[in-house]
Amino acid sequence: MAKLAQLTRAYQLSDASLNLSLTSQLTRTMQRYHHRCDRLRQNVADLQQIINALPIGYLQVDEENQLTWCNPQALKLLEIEHFDGASPRLLLELVRSYDLDALVDRARHKQKSCVREWIFNPVSVDVANVQVKRSRPLRGYAFPLQEDCVAVILENREEATLLAQERDRWTSDVAHELRTPLTSIRLVAEMLQYRVDADSRQWIDRLLKEVIRLSTLVQEILDLSQLEANKNRPLKLSQVDLPQLIQSAWLSLEPISRTKGIELHYQGPERLIVEGDENRLHRVLINLLDNGIKYTIPDRPIRIVVSFLQAPAPVPTWGPANPSAIAWVQIDIIDGGMGFPEMDLSVVFERFYRADPSRTRQSVGPQIIHSEPSTTGSFKPPLHPTANPSSDPTAELTTHGHSLSEANFPNPVIQPFQPSSGSGLGLAIVRQIVEMHHGNVTAQNHPDGGAWIQIKLPQKQT
User: From CA 427, how far away is CA 349, in angstroms rounded?
Assistant: First the structure.
């Protein structure tokens, strides 16, 4: 009996020790948990302090588009009043901005970061005390968060816009001042061209060539400044037959292309009517075809594919919410050169961009597949007319191979052509005109080789 009592006592002591050990472990675990929570709360407080001190705006909205938190800079940029962050409020109730609301919805719907630029026009929510407030350009970056929440970073673009306007004004003023003396120098050079001996004429010819190049550069600067100044003005819209416009632009460049043995291979409908500004669309084609001729290797073709997009193109910022309501036309221009340097693809449409001259001697991908000979003229369809030139797998192209020749257009309109100055303004002008038509333009390298410019235009302007 004594032994049994000893065993029972020993068991009770071990059980108490075990209970004490479990309690100790649980206590230590809870202490670590509280310590971790304290660190997380401190991290959140530090992040909030940093965000509050940022010179850019930051705000968060929940799944019901209620503003849950924003920093002082966002309150200032959006001129939000009477929001303390204690209780969420509907974003549209605090900020009457369709663009900001659309940016949030787009990021939530696509579940990826989105960017949008707009002119914010503050509206007073107090109808009894309406105040006229100053507009400001904003750029917003929206990021999807968990549980359908969205974070938005706002950047004030007033200073950048002001600097761009000052730059445009300065370049425009300089260009205007240069145009008159350049015209005078050109007239004098043309008068002297045939009044000097043959040995001196080469110097006059060189002078005249450089004066023409500078005059073209000045005109391009003026054109780009005019486009920037008038980008919000209505276009001179008319019904434009796109294939005929392409043929007209090519005939204007034919004297240059013939010297290099370059032909244009066209694939698309014989007639396709789009609504647009004919003169400006002609300028787009001239700039792109001129660049194509410049970089195409002799005896290789330039290809143009005109097609309808069966799948919706990306919705522009100006357009309706339903992209299926827009009929899109796609223009693919692929030259016979060696393509763009990969590192330059993001900046080819910037002002004064000039490709590395060595790109015409680089080897990028396989050579272009040449088309079969044709007797219908210099416009020939590609060898593989059913190939889809689009890199977008969701876009289905419907095309028909046709030859654009003078037989199709007995009286083609050939507009005078001035060679490019090579200043790097041609593609910037292209982008400006395409965006004025509510379209978009991209640059890439074609899998078969060559630089590939893709333009998407709404068939009808709205």
Answer: 5
